[in-house]
Amino acid sequence: METVTGPAMKGALEYIGLDRISGPLVVISGVRGVGFGEVVEVVPSDGQSRQGRILSISEDVAVVEVFEGTSGLAQPTTRVRFLGRPFEIIVSREEVLGRIFDGLGRPLDGGPVPLRGERRNINGLPINPVARVYPQDFIQTGISAIDGMNTLVRGQKLPIFSGSGLPHNDLAAQIVRQARLLTEDEGFAVIFGAMGVRHDEAETFRRSFEESGVLKNVAMFLNLADDPTVERLITPRIALTVAEYLAFEEKMHVLVILTDMTNYCEALREVATSKGEVPSRKGYPGYLYSDLASIYERAGRIIDRQGSITQIAILTMPDDDITHPIPDLTGYITEGQIVLDRSLAQRGIYPPINVLPSLSRLMSDGIGEGRTRKDHGDLASQLYAAYARARQVQRLASIIGEEDLSATDKLYLTFAREFHERFLRQGADENRTITRTLELGWELVMLLPEQELTRLKPEEIERYGRIKRLAVSH
Amino acid sequence: MESTAQQPHITMISGPVVKARPAHRFSMNEMVEVGDERLVGEVIDLDEDLATIQVYEDTTGLRPGADVYAKGLPLYVELGPGLIGEIFDGVQRPLEVLHEKWGDFIRRGKTGTALPRDRVWQFTPSVRPGAMVSPGEILGEVPESQLITHRILVPPGVQGTLERIVPEGDYTLDDIIAVIRSTSDKIHELKLFHRWPVRKIRPYRERLVPSEPLITGQRVIDTFFPLARGGTAGIPGGFGTGKTVTQHQLSKWADADIIVYIGCGERGNEMTGVLVDLPKLLDPRTQHPLIERTILIANTSDMPVAAREASIYTGVTIAEYYRDMGYDVALMADSTSRWAEALREISGRLEEMPAEEGFPAYLASRLAAFYERAGQVVSLAGKKGSVTLIGAVSPPGGDFSEPVTMHTKRFVQCFWALDKELASARYFPAINYLQSYSAYISVVEPWWTEKVGSTWRTLREKTINILQEDSRLQNIVKLLGEEALPDDQKRIIEGARFIKNDFLQQSAFDPVDTYAGPEKQFLLLDVILHFIERLADVVKARIPLFRAMEPPVVAEIHRLKFTQRGDDPGPFRSIKEQIDKEINALLHRQDS
User: What is the interface pTM, i.e. ipTM, of the complex?
Assistant: First the structure.
């Protein structure tokens, strides 16, 4: 191997020739003085430089993943430049917000490359648990199934588990349009990271941001379906690095949308397989959990810093299977999940949120007196219990017929219907206040006999429920 | 990038795994420091001239050729006053100190010591110079927190004549407080702390058979699937089934002297939640903040994976240390699956031959070795102490047949299976009472019958019979509906509903319901069973069962768990009387 050094590349080492090309990886031997995880530039003979990263390094062999793919690289002529630093981007409020970039952070909107600002390693650093603030500020999304039963709070990571063809994008866009804190309106930003999404999907988001007038507060990082797959490993990290800067330096409340994490995981599997690693479940690498955690954990709030990062990652469950490693490991890391359901969608219900497997782990601390309303927790719990029972009754009814159900069970059937039609179903632009959502919830539970309402306290039924009973009976 | 012939250096880096040569400079499991930043690592394999090291910190930027420094000691923890109330990472770096030093994010490299050297402790000696002392013996005491008196022990392996011991006074961890001359004339200078390798079980004099319950204040656990002091328990459950909330509840209310809580590869916000809650919550027995008896180990999922593997050992070694002082220690590990996955990840990087689902073949023996560190013992000093281990398991896809759950099941005596369906109806704790079991029932029975209620056993058995009968009937109900059942079977279903809603279900977020002492558990169950038994009379009198749900006492039963703490049996007794009165009234109305 030949080492070329020149005045043009201070601190960088350049080598010519590759030993091996395999999938997205290239192997270079005779390399000295380069570090694990550092960035490289791979330059084929046409001069179009590609970026890559060192995956493993021994005394003289470096394995490099090339983000833009290895297609077109020739063994003898390709030059590899080791930059001696990890993958970094330049972040600033002015040069990033209102802009569109590609999956590696290069402008797509014809604007200038960000130059002024802070250079940051895209891998970020783990937040010291001691420095975290426990998230408890309620975010009103205007969507009843979320606000009422799976409340989102500022600094939470709450993914949407979806299936292909389900309206997860519409839901995410609606959340972006409507998400507001109950109390204040401070500086906010939306960071949108797309991994392998179709062009029209990205465009839908852009238009939605534009229509709601938030575009100037949005930065989009787009790795589209026809962009190189390995690049997807970088995109979410760039998005989160920008988000961290805006949240923790610029004091903004940042909502990060990452879609579609399934594509990200597949890119990870592709690289792992090319490296010949021992696979664990379904061919995904054993470190999928740690790797996903290094993305999802980059959310939250920090003591004495005003901003926050709230993360909504979207993933499509392969074959609608929630036990697939991707949703499974995600659910173990994130603070809950919103699960979309195909059968609800087929019945034309939007948003088709199946509340039973959905969960917000931070809900109990984000609701209640002084945040939403005192009865919120018990009401949500009652709605869950009733809906779970109602689904059982529905199954029973499909076997023995509705006629043979007990009187109470029939009421549960009515509850299920009303729950779907009035509580769950809402317009794509319908922005319900939390009060309205809770009122709806009360109207539903009061369809049931009072002795069924074991999760509600008698005084709550007295105060919020009785009035609904009257309204129903009239 | 210069390295001398002697100085070992890096030859390969792949994630957290680093190889170095020459290997003869290292010993197995030796602690090392890697590179200019002195990243902490441990030797995990020695093969001819190559040493494999797992590094407990991020290895980005590390270069082949960089120096590796052997520390001459296996991976150890510092044991001494200053542990209580602290939060450490997986290799015992104090996170509060890291926060002060580096700010909000965790960086890598040297951090100083685990225990603070500048803090002054009030030491009172309890032995006189000239005495013969042996390993584990208590030299004196330090008040560590309002709740815990820290006993300063002669480290294992040290014995001889006490040449000198300092008088009562204030000392730091660096001060020499005692000098021991061994029989072979070796001088040991002792400080308030000593070091102990994390992978080595601390010695004890004798192992006892667990004989007392560890009361957790959680009704489904204490009454149905009890845990014993020095016992082991596994909590498997898919995501969202409430593993963490259950572990938090145990860490808050278990009646151990010391709690060691290990957040192993879990969420950062959860550890923050624990940190926020514990100083505010009071121990129901001592009325002191719970943080005064708690030690936290946090290796969140975004922190380096190798330290996650170590965190379990760091925690259990600290637990054993307090056990040796004569304390009952309960350790919660959330989650052991993340620890197993860390093993798998490292094993994968070592290109070892995988066994099931990519886990290394030694997974089972490592799990066994971990749970083996539980037990009630007589310490070297002759004190009775215990370590109770409670491990959460996160089975992929909630599938209990996966390797970690399966092996855990082999090594634990209590198995609290969390159920997805219960959780999705927000029925918590979502412990499936048909799948769960405890091997300690006969062990704890004498305690319950003696201290709480002589009818404990029959009460418990009757309840379990109703629940089992109910689950059998539920199969019919699923096909035919409840209406199809005769009234005596409906009674079972209705009765089971009372047990489930008013006894088993317990709210972690309700100030009263969150903790139920043994007396309350017994009294509450007694009331509920009494009601179910009286329902039999209603059925016998051919009164439709729903009529028995109408009397006002039914609502009173539902409210009991939220209103009574159980220190006064009066209200329970009067509800029982009210049940009799109202059911009798119902029967009389029928007669007339």
Answer: 0.88
